[in-house]
Design brief:
homodimer; eight-stranded mixed sheet; globular; two-stranded antiparallel ribbon; 56% helix; alpha+beta
Chain lengths: 575, 575
């Protein structure tokens, strides 16, 4: 439809096939090398292994950097859902090498909405073409999640530019020699502006200042202070950057002064869905790997087989190994479904016929974005824990990819806002501020799926469970809103991440029931595309989620409804 | 009492103080170095960093290797509970450097029961003195957990020795130059013996064959095949060993032929409690570190404070950070209490006045050993996950110890039997085999604690919850035993790790209520030793466990009681 009318299922499948091949050839094959050879800083220059260069070239040449952008901007005008699916394939193969391209795409995307024509021409186009790489520069050593406290300042110059001066932290892709230029997108305060988050502006600060032809020229006053040495994600350089040690780095304001945080949040909302998608992709990478191992590795015998001389069986035949595999799949495919659903909402926004409809979709997406970021991150990591467990001692060694995948995925509950912060965002900002209206929209959607499933004998048990869960979610939200008034907002928000987890489990159950409907429809039609086992396996994984996971919401709900303040009441000297 | 009459609270506290100082000076200070410089294999020789040597010397010189052994054997005759507490301190400081000593202690301990006088003289004494280091050699590449399938063979020689030939895997401390000799304790099969686990014998295979004076002489035919490169625990060499590539390694039988596995299990039972203790120690190390960070790090403001120019507060004041700290403490101190309780049972066995009483304690300890191994391993790691979360991005870097602690602790759910295997051991072997008798003993003990707590207003809520939990545990066990008969053992055991988790949560709640009683008693007596805040904090952490954790058993119980076979029923082609 509309902007995406040129694409259809076949064309997207062809793109996914290309992406799969490239992800296997250039990304999966180098993941271990990139992990074992993290970036180094030598005389102020950051070195990354050559494999990152090779992967970058392949990705760029296939046109994936610009996939989501307009034809006019050099892009493929692909729906975000397809782009996210492509990115998931690369992430599953080698998440830390993807960082450079994904950051560049996110940064370039910001210009489509807030950049001037000149900024688009000089910065966005080279980003989309993959000649320049982009970064997002938010945190400072004294201000991680608390952006209102940043101190980096931007002093206006007579020529309309700014001098940027300050120290920044946690910059992914901060420095390297992979691209002709690095374009930093920096939050800073213009002196004299309002305090806190309302005084933050956004600036373009290229590593090399562009000459009049748009080519990188003079070195700008931004330099690496030190590299961060991480548990995983080692292919992506992460560093502290100093701006303006020699008088000030030249920067260009994006949009209006003091509105930088809202621009950055626009980008971060997409980044949050991207984090969730990445975590889901790693969950499934671990699942696929441990599944292959469990099929090949023989050990032990069925419990009933007491003959020590009989042949050992593949470990996939042991009940506990099956459980660890189903659980990984339930988490991974559930999380993936949610993230693709969010991506679809982004596309629906694009296609919305009116501003009001667009706004309605946007509010709904805003509601579930903290869940799409957090649930896959926490449960994707839990899945990777199980992938290691399936391999046993081998899973703990660096000879098998599940070890690296687990370390890589450990970042996801942290970056783009920790689980604790997402919990506050979800309950405090998204659910409470509109008095539960958007949450009502969500539970209404769940109700429709449940209604459709209730007439199917195979699904009716779960349809009823989802209906109950949605009712419980509504009731719990009301209790929390009541508690915020009766007790205090602090007390009601004290277990915000638990409420997010409860809502997350309910949403993932919904996603599984939607998948169940698709399976039943396909089976009824005798659709043999993926084979009967595929659908049977999907349906049983759905069963698992409804039987092993969804019932946990009752405990969480009880805790939340009584506005439990056990932790909140601990005084700091009691620790 | 008895064997331990020379020791009392004061003397043990003095030993713990010495251990604390040594753990800080020689172990904590080198943990990062040892982690960053894992062992290397150069021309067949394994190199470990010098820091391991320094730590080894300090530990040995303080007499800690022999702490648990008889005075006659050169030991300090300390109760196991005190020894475990000492080991916890060293583990918290630097778990991977401890591996050499702990393995040596465990190996030496085996001789006290199964060694001949000559074997004690030639091998046990140098192990206790710290001149020789010991290993346990069980697994093979094709047989990890399935020891009945090992292929290493021991061929009897005319002089009464054996030639050992085979390939072994996952040997901690397999090779190094830290000690004068390495004494391997190797499981192998004497040709012609029974198949499976009933044909396994245990052999002493020194790296250097001893001369008549007991000094290391000729090199034995055992060599490193390759090193394993692990996620964590990097200070401890772990390798594959080849025995008998040049005709056969000389080995000496321990005890009788074909009884090796039972001897090894004796050692492994203690090792399992040690694993749990190590995991608990790492949970608390992460807790302490993240607590210190949360007190120092300022960021953000209370929710009610809307002034962006007010001073940021220490993050410990945020409700979610408090929750992450209380949760870590609840897991860590609960797990530690259980492991110390198990160690106390080992001491009580030693002191038991009759063989029957000794046997009764042993059976009870056997019941809870798989829980003491598994619950701390899984929940200790969950605690470390939260420690990283408290630090945010910093927690993901190798500049802060929580990152290493998390990687180190990841081993604990794997070695000495994975969580899945412990689940089968607990439900299949320990609970079902005696028809629930020992489980009844456990719930009776819980009942006594609950009764004592029920008359205390502060504790009565939790006393009632523990009583209910114990009843539910009994009912669930009965349902599982019924299911094993009615359905099949496979179906009843399909969720064995969930039953272990349920029993684990119930036992940890019991441990917390015991701690609650001690706190109340101390407060009533006006005991100011640790200060009022200490007891208040303990009691609130107990509250946390009873309110946030224990209620999870209801979901698990429902799943288990209906003999859920969702995973078990997945056929392998449906994955």
């Amino acid at each position: 439809r509309g902007r995406f009318a040129d694409h259809d299922g076949d064309s997207v499948r062809a793109i996914l096939e290309t992406a799969t091949k490239l992800a296997e050839d250039k990304f999966a094959s180098t993941a271990q090398i990139v992990d074992a050879n993290e970036p180094t800083l030598e005389s102020g220059r950051v070195r990354v292994p050559d494999e990152v260069n090779i992967a970058r070239d392949a990705y760029r040449e296939a046109g994936f950097v610009g996939a989501a952008f307009d034809y006019d901007d050099g892009g493929l005008q692909l729906p975000v859902m397809a782009v996210q699916a492509v990115q998931a394939l690369f992430t599953a193969a080698n998440t830390s090498t993807c960082g450079y391209a994904f950051l560049t795409i996110a940064a370039a995307h910001m210009y489509t909405q807030y950049g001037t024509d000149e900024q688009k021409e000089r910065f966005m186009r080279p980003l989309i073409d993959g000649r320049f790489f982009g970064t997002m520069v938010l945190s400072e050593p004294q201000a991680g999640s608390s952006l209102g406290d940043i101190r980096t300042r931007a002093e206006p110059q007579e020529d309309g530019t700014y001098k940027i001066i300050g120290n920044k932290m946690w910059i992914s892709g901060a420095d390297h020699e992979l691209s002709e230029n690095i374009v930093h997108h920096v939050l800073a305060k213009i002196p004299g502006g309002p305090p806190g988050v309302k005084g933050i502006s956004l600036f373009i600060v290229p590593k090399y200042i562009l000459d009049t032809d748009g080519n990188p020229g003079k070195r700008n006053d931004v330099h690496v202070a030190s590299l961060n040495h991480k548990m995983g994600y080692r292919g992506t350089v992460n560093a502290a950057l100093n701006f303006g040690e020699n008088g000030g780095a030249t920067g260009y304001l994006i949009g209006e002064p003091h509105k930088g945080l809202s621009y950055m949040f626009h980008m971060m909302n997409e980044a949050r869905i991207g984090v969730g998608m990445g975590a889901a992709a790693l969950a499934l990478a671990g699942y696929e790997y441990s599944l292959g191992y469990a099929r090949d590795r023989t050990q032990g015998r069925p419990l009933a087989d007491k003959n020590p001389e009989s042949q050992p069986v593949p470990i996939i035949e042991h009940a506990d190994v099956k459980r660890m595999l189903v659980q990984q799949r339930a988490y991974g495919e559930g999380a993936m479904a949610l993230c693709l659903y969010c991506a679809k909402l982004v596309d629906e926004m694009e296609l919305a016929p009116s501003k009001e409809e667009r706004k309605a979709i946007e509010s709904f997406l805003d509601l579930i974005t903290p869940i799409a970021k957090t649930w896959p991150s926490e449960y994707g990591l839990a899945a990777n824990h199980l992938a290691i467990q399936v391999l046993g001692g081998y899973g703990y060694t660096r000879d098998y990819p599940v070890e690296r995948i687990y370390r890589d995925n450990r970042l996801n509950p942290i970056h783009e806002g920790t689980t604790g912060i997402q919990g506050l965002d979800f309950l405090g900002r998204k659910v409470m501020r509109d008095g539960g209206d958007m949450l009502g929209h969500l539970t209404a959607q769940m109700g429709e799926t449940a209604k459709a499933a209730s007439t199917d004998e195979r699904l009716s048990e779960h349809a009823a469970a989802l209906t109950d869960a949605a009712t419980l979610l509504t009731r719990t939200a009301k209790a929390l809103m009541g508690g915020a008034q009766r007790n205090s907002p602090e007390a009601a928000l004290a277990n915000a991440p638990t409420f997010l987890e409860m809502a997350g489990h309910t949403i993932i159950a919904w996603m599984w029931l939607r998948q169940g409907l698709v399976c039943q429809e396909a089976l009824a039609k005798g659709d043999g595309r993926f084979g009967a086992s595929f659908y049977a396996g999907k349906l049983k994984t759905m069963d698992f989620f409804f039987r092993y996971e969804l019932p946990k919401i009752h405990h969480w709900s009880a805790l939340l409804e009584r506005i439990d303040t056990t932790c909140h009441d601990m005084s700091t000297d009691e620790f």
